[in-house]
């Protein structure tokens, strides 16, 4: 509407349009028919609908008479056979025995002839020769325009539409401005009425056959479209009137075809819903063919309607001639009434709104009358809200129209609108609805137009504070849903979902997932209000829910939502209120009917959940629910048993297998909610599974529910054994059944059927956990039921994880919907969580978690939260064994890397995984001391293990690089012990290898300490970086030892710098290097201090404070501008609170290669030796910073974003409740 308003806000310029209107012609391409003429009374064979007919092609030229690019009329004429009569048809149509154009024209002019007889005579002529018949009709149209020219057969065969119109224009008698449609007197009304009647009868007589022959009407409409664009007023007026009348007839045909299609579709659906044995296959095929034929007919008629609307109406409704504009608006009003589904929309209503501004009163009058007809229909009021609000001011202003007839009709229109609104309001009051229906309509529209997935709960929660009463208007919602002609199909589904979300919000008084800010305790007043709302909605919905289920029983989506409603009821009211008892039986009846009607898993699961709630022993009416459930399951079990023997023998046909599969699917869904062991379904399901596996007839529709039925039977049997005291023989039998089922599932894990394989794995995880040692700790008598998985089953389950969970899916390569990807990922997460639960609860050894741990880094985005929780839980079980499992996972990855192809990139990935796993040890290094030592010893042993046959010696030495990622967590005394252990295991020749030296440096880096602070006040008064004072708790011996270690380390650095200088041609002793480097260090630190103090801009009257650790880090960053690299200090570190913490956390900062080589632009051209020198300067800076700044413990679990290697951010925003659901 807005676009239309901006382009044509007012029709004041209508009178300035050119006589020819707009250069536009829509062409209809049609299929070439058979060349021979049709003889006899036989109608033409119905052709297939061509795609070319579904759209109209636009052509616009600058000539006075536009030439269409593909005129179908002439194309068809050229393609006809020479068997057709080539004789030209004159004005008297001499030589043709049928009716002539003059005869039709005379009959129309007289107005006394029966149009049915005239049309029948012409149809007889058309059936004998359709080319000649079309030519007669064309000449009749030319005569009706007042033109004396004649279209001959040669013209029809050889000329385009535009050429024919041009020839007729030249022969037109322009001496007189009168033509039949503008002749004054009663003749005008008589001719116009007869012409319209002839057109109406013609369409009605052809609506069952000739209208779909893709020849007559496309050719006729193409000619009328070209004539309507002519500069000759007679052509334009007459052709527009005929085109609009033909359009009206086509609209009626389209409505009839739509009704026939809907009726046939209902017949087909009813027949198809019957059982396979009761269906009439021939009837179904005939109905299917009829539906296809009607669909093609509807598309063909819609194509012609679309071409006429775009080619004629869109341009002639604003023609210069007011009679043409009035004719277009009059017919538009008829289309709105006859076919509101296609025309009663803003795209068509805008033409009426714009025409209200027309300068000519006859056009405005016709527009107002068309609006009166539309507003008389009460069911249209909902679709007219936007139009009414947009043109309300214009309609009110037209009450003072200068034309009295227009003013009177406008007053009648406004009274009609007011009367209609009053009637609707009164009916709403009678029906119990209120003005909230408007708000509901707005909510439905907003919900449907939003592209968010399942956001109904969040929409209701957002509006609950401001529109609580409107959202609790259950009466309006149910009244609208139970009305026969209320909402569209999509609108009904949206309203049901919003209603269920409002029910949940009112009954539970809790926001949806993700909206909970904090646990808020409800006050006594809020609890009373919540209970009142729950009783009120229960009283309202108990009588109406069976009616809603009956109405929407065939719709799986709506039924699934409606079945959730009783879960929010106060179910005690079924017995507490006597008049509500009968509705329980109605609900159970509808529930059983839905189970028998649907096979969708979501619907069946909703039914099972509702049955479980109604059969709860806490309700006094549970016996009635148990009875209904038992009767339902009796029928389903009997049905399944009738097909079982044939399926086991392999003689069942496809219909029997389908019936058995659907029945078993219903039983499986119900088994998840209620105990079904009394029906003894385990043995039949197990035999069925074995027979299908042996025959390799893997029908997922049959095997998946069979797996579920057997598994649920074992689960219920275990629960019954816990709640009772079964005999020893019964326990042995149950364990035997469990072992047999595990073997079947073990076989299913290797099948090439995704659904069967996934279901078997999930059921195995649940059953092994249910029959584990942990589950019978409280019942020693049930020790017989404990079943541990075999070694082969363990390996199969681990292989399943690698092959189907930790695998890159092909969904990225295929065009898979995003929702399907989310579903697949969720299923993988459930499978991984099931496997991790087996590890956590002791069903599988901790070593089995290596297949999980080694994918922590690669699949961190999808499964990071689950794996992190598993690592954390494993540390609670056995910290040492958990650490060894972490090391084992890294060893396996390293061995796989060596087996496939040694790659530095693969080694970097393993080191990245080691970093992430090292973060999981936390900051309490005393608590993880033994696990870390065990991890390092296992790693060292693996690195120097003896080579096996055909293995190179010392293949695993590079593993020490991976192991070094865990060194920063070691205590000083443990570093010394591990360094000694390394020397004992490592051959003397390998001590100089890079990997060994790197690992040694990682151990020595943490064990070395910083030199002791200078005695006296030198350190405090130094002009270098002053250090903050801290309370010391370590002994003096430790300080002396740290000072010695630091001095030794500094001398090593000076020696390395001297060696590098000599290699570059500069002879420098160690002492010279030490003095030079100390001077460089002093100048850099002084510059950094002065720059920092200047930037702080402290007032001159305040004393300069001692720099904190933060200030020191800023200074370190400023040193990077002078060539020193930035150290690893950052916000991810926290200051130690004691000397113990200091000794634990103190380490030589690891200088990462990326940061170590990060130089300024002026230094990019330095040589390799210069970069090595800068690296040693950086190391020296780090060493001597220890004299001025105390180190800090790395807070590896603080989640800081400043240092990525020191944080473990959660890549999946999963609340704790989701993890609880996965692990509990």
UniProtKB/TrEMBL annotation:
Acidic residues biased stretches: 1184-1205
Composition-biased stretches (Low complexity): 56-65
Coiled coil location: 277-304
Compartment annotation: Nucleus; Chromosome; Chromosome, Centromere
Keywords: Cell cycle, Cell division, Chromosome, Chromosome partition, Coiled coil, Nucleus
Basic and acidic residues composition-biased segments: 1034-1047
Pfam families: HEAT_SCC3-SA, SCD, STAG
InterPro entries in the cross-refs: ARM-type_fold, Cohesin_Scc3/SA, HEAT_SCC3-SA, SCD, STAG
GO CC field: chromatin; chromosome, centromeric region; cohesin complex; nucleus
Major subcellular location class: nucleus
Basic residues compositional bias, start-end: 43-52
Keyword Nucleus: yes
Annotated region (Disordered), positions in chain: 1-97, 1004-1049, 1182-1224
Polar residues: compositionally biased ranges: 1208-1217
A molecular-function term among this protein's GO annotations: chromatin binding
SCD domain sequence ranges: 313-398
Gene Ontology terms describing biological process: cell division; chromosome segregation; sister chromatid cohesion
Assembly: Part of the cohesin complex which is composed of a heterodimer between a SMC1 protein (SMC1A or SMC1B) and SMC3, which are attached via their hinge domain, and RAD21 which link them at their heads, and one STAG protein.
Function recorded in the entry: Component of cohesin complex, a complex required for the cohesion of sister chromatids after DNA replication. The cohesin complex apparently forms a large proteinaceous ring within which sister chromatids can be trapped. At anaphase, the complex is cleaved and dissociates from chromatin, allowing sister chromatids to segregate.
Protein known as: Cohesin subunit SA
